[in-house]
Design a protein that fits this description.
three-stranded antiparallel sheet; five-stranded antiparallel sheet; 137 residues; single chain
Length: 137
Amino acid sequence: QVPRQGGMGRAGSGSTADLYPAINPASAFGDNWARLEMPQGKKAKRVYAGAHHFCAVLEGGVGVCWGRSTKGQAGIGSGSVGDAAGEMGDSLKLLDFGDEDMSFLLGFAHTCALAKGDVHCFGYTFTLLSDPPSAQP
């Protein structure tokens, strides 16, 4: 199914409106597919999906997350990102794990990253364990 729900920034479209409300799968792909804006000069290598948030591993060993973050699960504190204009692209918080082979595991209200053999978790019940590392823009 085409990801289309824009609520809480899940679609990363800069809006809370649903994408393709009258969906016709044949017309939703190719040039019609909504493209998410990543930070300038960074290409996504892998994308991971949670219940209401997403994370991507980018070139250079950094990650970004967007969508619902009511418990800090997107690594941005409380709130949502991607549901208003100007919140994607260079506005995304870079999570600097320094490992291009890193991976994410996303749950309902938490995120864990595996990088350089270490596990970093944040979000619900993990807020006291660690905060995600930040990269300087």
